[in-house]
Amino acid sequence: MKKWTLIMLIIALLVFGSVIGFNLMVKNKIADAIANMPEKESPVTVMTLATEKWQPTINAIGFVEPNQGVTIANELAGTISNINFENGTEVQLGQNLILLDSAVEKANLKSKRVQLPAAKADYKRLSLLYKQNSVSKQDLDNSESKYLTLQADIESLAATIDRRAIDAPFAGLVGIRSVNLGEYLQVGTDIVRLEDISTMKIRFTVPQNQLPRISKGQTIYVYVDAYPEHPFEGQISAIEPAVFYQSGLIQIQATIPNIDTKLRSGMFARVAVQLPEMTEQFILPQTAINFTLYGNSIYRLYETEEKGETIKRVQQLNIEVLERNGNNALVSGKLAANDIIVTSGQIRLNNNSKVKVTEDNAITPPTTMPQL
Question: Are residues 286 and 351 in the same domain?
């Protein structure tokens, strides 16, 4: 029995020993393979850095306004007797738009005008008689009062009739009227929108620390969603004298010629205030920049000789992003012309990583869009 137990123990030791030996052999093989594995080479795309011109801008948003705009309304209640314009047409200064019925006022005016000559003659006659001491001063005063009252009534009725004729206060484009012929209008009813869109205005705000860079006459470019690729050029025409204390912003107004009438009031617009052009600047695509909470950095490619072979590696550089415009960014740092900068693939890189330059057509937009 003891002999059998000893044999089994020896067999178990041999089995466990062979398993442990095999695992150690595998581990050593893996370690050797890792030690002899070639260094990882990450594919990247690059660009050669060169100095360029940069157009700095101050970007803002605002809403387009007409040169003049008003909603035509009536001062007096009445019934519409005439509509003298077509929807969406040009009207001239002083052109009649709406006539309210004024038959009663015209009749009263006619009555007053008929009475005026007699009142005037009576006043002149009593004036002569008063000089001859033939009438009292009271009779003369009553006659003068009656004459002047008639004159005032005539002027009042004439003004009321004029106010029933609603004219265009300036030349411009009328919209779609909200009233109809024969409709009775209460005082202050909105009739139609009139706007002078020959020149448009835009109001926008900028931070107060940008005020030294803003001046009247400065060129701006305005972009609207209706024409996203077409910049509308204008000039700053006014600067608000006070900064809004709750936000620290200051309001700016600019005028934009609108000869082709593409701009309409109420359009949301993006504004780019043009600042003096800068030369010999370093500009990078934003895809080449690593943006982090601890700062911004890029990778610069350099070559080194290792074991008789030319190896491409990268060096991480901290930079400062001064301004952005679309996909481009104006940067500063320890950069020089002809530096080779990594533009994509840097997510796999560390300082001194080995790289391989490749061509990446994925970021190049096609000349024509595919048809569905």
Answer: yes
Structural domains of the chain, count = 3
What is the average pLDDT across 282-288?
Answer: 89
- Which of 188, 201, 162, 181 shows the shortest CA–CA distance to 80? 181
pTM score:
0.66
C-alpha angle 303-304-305 in degrees, rounded to nearest 5: 135
How far apart are alpha carbons 199 and 253 in whole angstroms? 13
Taking the C-alpha atoms of residue 371 and residue 198, their distance in angstroms, rounded to an integer, is: 40
* 208-247 exposure pattern, b = at least 16 Cβ within 10 A, e = fewer: eebeeebeeebebbbbbeeeeeeebebebbeeeeeeeeee
- Mind listing the pLDDT tens digit for each residue in 324-346? 887 889 998 888 888 888 988 88
What's the CATH code of the domain at 246? 2.40.30.170
Q: Is residue 74 part of a domain?
A: no
Which of 242, 274, 306 is where one domain is finished?
Answer: 274
Radius of gyration of the chain (CA): 44
Mark which of 246, 274, 302 sits at the end of a domain.
Answer: 274
Q: Residue 250 is encoded by which pair of tokens? A: 């200051």
Q: Which of 173, 168, 196, 192 is nearest to 93 (CA)?
A: 168
φ/ψ of residue 116, rounded to 5? -65, -45
Domain range holding 267? 58-67+198-274
Give domain status of residue 224, yes or no.
yes
